[in-house]
Write a structure and sequence with these properties.
This protein is mostly beta strands and 387 residues long. It has strands at 10-15, 19-20, 25-33, 36-38, 46-48, 60-65, 69-71, 74-76, 81-87, 93-101, 104-112, 119-125, 128-129, 134-143, 154-159, 163-164, 168-170, 176-183, 187-192, 199-205, 209-214, 219-220, 225-233, 241-248, 259-262, 267-271, 277-287, 292-302, 305-311, 320-328, 334-340, 346-349, 353-357, 362-372, 378-386.
Length: 387
């Protein structure tokens, strides 16, 4: 018959750890101390439990557990101690280990895996991604009530947007479990372990800056055209920044000098177009992420118009004839007017008016060239009869 603990033996049950990884192991030690008989003849009146010395070497102690397994299931004492190991089987929960020998019995609880978790702390690096999205490392730390990291605890990850490289990860020896989130949208990642309230971290996208270019209602050659250029942002409340902003007017002239746009206040850029036609005006720059940004608009540039008159017409030899040239639109900038009076003489005026007297009679054709500040001249012929 195996040797078991005598009546009155007390067992003290000790685990080398209170928190065990799901696939870890812990040393379980049962310390057995005999009872002491008290009073009466032949000391038969009673026993004080655990008041004596260690039980005999070789006393058999049997161990059971509600979770995992015990190896070996039975152990013999040496110097009053029987030592076995509790081995996790991949499941989380509270393991209740029982040691008994004879009438003596004792239990101890060991938390396995998530059962020992008190909280889950979740962080992300980086927590803010570029406007177009990207990948971030999401870390969950599973801690016990004292703030110690728990090894071998399964952590379940989930996300509201994007994809995770792993949805279930075991913690390392410092209690960390790491997965990767790839997303093009703002997301909230949750990490849970057992019944502990899930920890979360919000992944944000940094504001994307863009450019808005607004042309005037109508555009003509050599006429001041005011364009509004404005920085915009994809995130409400953030401040857009576009540096090295330049405007290419699509007519072969140099771009505007580079400037930095900060905030949404519009900047006005003026230009005189040198040619008419359908043109593409483009504003471009670099946002705060170093990403090129641009925006274009199609504009129709009209040519200038001109008309001219002679007064009086017809006229007579030696009389002064007044010529008037009018141009449109009214705010077109004209550099000068070149007048060919059709009799071998000519003149240049700053305004649209010229005077001339003819020395001989006959039909003449006067040609006035309206020369704008930029762009091609417009010519108008004025027939006149000199009597």
């Amino acid at each position: 018959m195996p040797l078991v603990a005598p009546t009155g033996t007390a067992i003290t049950l000790i685990s080398s750890t209170n928190d065990l990884p799901v696939n870890g192991s812990a040393e379980i030690t049962a310390v057995l101390v005999q009872g002491v008989q008290t009073g009466g003849a032949n000391n038969a009146s009673g026993v004080t439990a655990g008041g004596g010395t260690s039980v005999h070497n070789g006393t058999v102690v049997t161990f059971t557990t509600t979770l995992g397994r015990i190896e070996p299931a039975e152990a013999q004492t040496s110097a009053g101690k029987a030592v076995v190991r509790l081995i996790g089987d991949g499941r989380s929960g509270k393991a209740t280990i029982t040691a008994f020998s004879g009438a003596a019995t004792k239990t101890v609880d060991v938390n396995i895996g998530s059962a020992g978790a008190s909280r889950v702390v979740v962080t992300a690096n980086p927590q803010s991604l570029p406007a177009g999205g990207g990948t971030t490392a999401v870390t969950a730390r599973v801690e016990d009530a004292q703030g110690n990291g728990l090894l071998g605890v399964p952590v379940s990850f989930s996300t509201t947007k994007g994809t995770l490289s792993q949805t279930t990860v075991l913690t390392n020896d410092q209690g960390f479990a790491v997965t990767q989130l790839t997303t093009t949208q703002e997301a909230t990642v949750s990490a849970s372990s057992g019944s502990v309230t899930a920890g979360t971290v919000a992944i944000t996208l940094r504001a994307q800056s863009s450019l808005v270019i607004t042309p005037p209602a109508s555009i003509f050659v050599s006429t001041p055209a005011s364009f509004s250029v404005q920085a915009a942002t994809s995130v409400s409340g953030s401040t857009p920044i576009v540096s090295n902003m330049q405007v290419d007017f699509g007519d072969g002239t140099p771009k505007t000098p580079p400037v930095t746009l900060t905030g949404t206040q519009a900047q006005t850029v003026q230009h005189l177009f040198a040619r008419k036609g359908q043109l593409t005006v483009t504003a471009s720059g670099v946002d705060q992420e170093g990403t090129p940004v641009s925006n274009s608009v199609q504009v129709a540039v009209g040519g200038i118009t001109a008309a001219a008159t002679a007064s009086p017409n017809p006229s007579i030899v030696g009389a002064t004839v007044t010529f008037n040239a009018t141009v449109g639109p009214t705010n077109v900038i004209i550099d000068h007017y070149e007048w060919d009076f059709g009799d071998g003489t000519s003149t240049i005026t700053a305004s649209g008016q010229a005077q001339h007297a003819y020395g001989t009679s006959g039909a003449r054709t006067v040609v006035v060239s309206v020369v704008p500040v930029v762009g091609d001249a417009v010519k108008v012929a004025i027939p006149i009869q000199i009597n």
